[in-house]
């Protein structure tokens, strides 16, 4: 709970800190980004009133009902932290330079640098996560389904994806299984990191392991299906 309040404090405190320090442009830009992210979360929750059932039905359409799918949720491969940070820094710096050059043409180099840096940061995040998923034979977003005998990872292509934020999941239909783990020999553990949960799956027989990250925030539309998957895996949330 302390980490949740820390995250919320960061979202609220950062614009205030920037504004009090005289960086009014940075404060308004940061606040606008945070509000935009909150708006996308609200829109997605409104557009997907019952993802628990929808994920189940779509997983069953691919896996069948023998054995029956117990729970399913959309997750992402856990970030490769080093590569993610490097990609963000590299593209953020490039974006700042390009933004400053562009903004200087209209006498707003500082604002241009801030906007360019933000866009570069998002671009770097997107590129690193796409590369990380590809290296594991996965997609940036996948559907994790649990049955009595297996844990199946299905494709989940988001046509409306913008930096991993989708406004709706209703138009997406999984078509194939990317990875399957044996329930009997796979150990599942969860590590919470603020509003995100890191789910580690390791097959003790084959040595294959995969780590995912998913929503643990009650305001997220994926919170209930995430808890259902954890319960099906006998993992304490």
Key phrases:
alpha+beta; 237 residues; seven-stranded antiparallel beta sheet; 7 strands; elongated
Briefly say what this structure is.
This protein is of the alpha+beta class.
Description:
There is one protein chain. It contains 6 helices and 7 strands. By secondary structure, it is an alpha+beta fold. A 7-stranded antiparallel sheet has the order 4-3-2-1-7-6-5. The protein is elongated. The mean pLDDT is 79.
Topology:
Blueprint: H1 2-20, H2 24-47, H3 51-63, E1 69-77, H4 81-104, H5 109-135, E2 142-147, E3 150-155, E4 177-182, E5 186-193, E6 196-203, E7 209-215, H6 223-232
Antiparallel strand pairs: 1-2, 1-7, 2-3, 3-4, 5-6, 6-7
How much beta, percentage-wise? 15-25%
Distance between the termini: 13 Å
The main sheet comes to:
7 strands, antiparallel
What sort of overall outline do the alpha carbons produce when their principal axes are compared? elongated
Number of helices: 6
The value of Rg in angstroms is 20 Å
Order of helices and strands: HHHEHHEEEEEEH
What's the pLDDT, averaged over the residues?
A: 79
Helix content: 40-55%
* Structural class estimated from helices and strands: alpha+beta
- Strand element count: 7
Strand order of the largest sheet: 4-3-2-1-7-6-5
Low-confidence segments: none
């Amino acid at each position: 709970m302390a980490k949740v309040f820390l995250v919320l404090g960061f979202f609220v405190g950062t614009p205030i800190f920037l504004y009090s320090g005289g960086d009014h442009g940075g404060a308004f830009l940061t606040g606008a980004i945070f509000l935009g992210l909150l708006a996308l979360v609200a829109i997605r929750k409104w557009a997907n009133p019952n993802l628990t059932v929808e994920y189940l039905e779509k997983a069953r359409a691919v896996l069948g009902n023998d054995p029956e799918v117990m729970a399913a949720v959309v997750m992402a491969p856990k970030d490769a932290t080093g590569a993610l940070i490097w990609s963000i820094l590299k593209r953020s710096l490039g974006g700042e330079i390009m933004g400053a050059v562009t903004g200087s043409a209209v006498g707003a180099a500082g604002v241009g640098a801030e906007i360019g840096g933000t866009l570069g940061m998002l671009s770097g995040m997107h590129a690193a996560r796409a590369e990380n998923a590809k290296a594991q034979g996965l997609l940036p977003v996948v559907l994790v389904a649990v049955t009595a005998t297996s844990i199946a990872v299905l494709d989940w292509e988001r046509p409306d994806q913008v930096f991993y934020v989708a406004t709706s999941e209703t138009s997406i239909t999984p078509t194939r299984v990317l990875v399957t783990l044996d329930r009997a020999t796979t150990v599942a553990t969860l590590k919470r990191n603020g509003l995100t949960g890191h789910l580690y799956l390791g097959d003790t027989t084959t040595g294959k392991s995969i780590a995912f990250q998913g929503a643990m925030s009650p305001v997220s539309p994926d919170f209930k299906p995430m808890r259902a998957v954890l319960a099906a895996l006998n993992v304490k949330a």
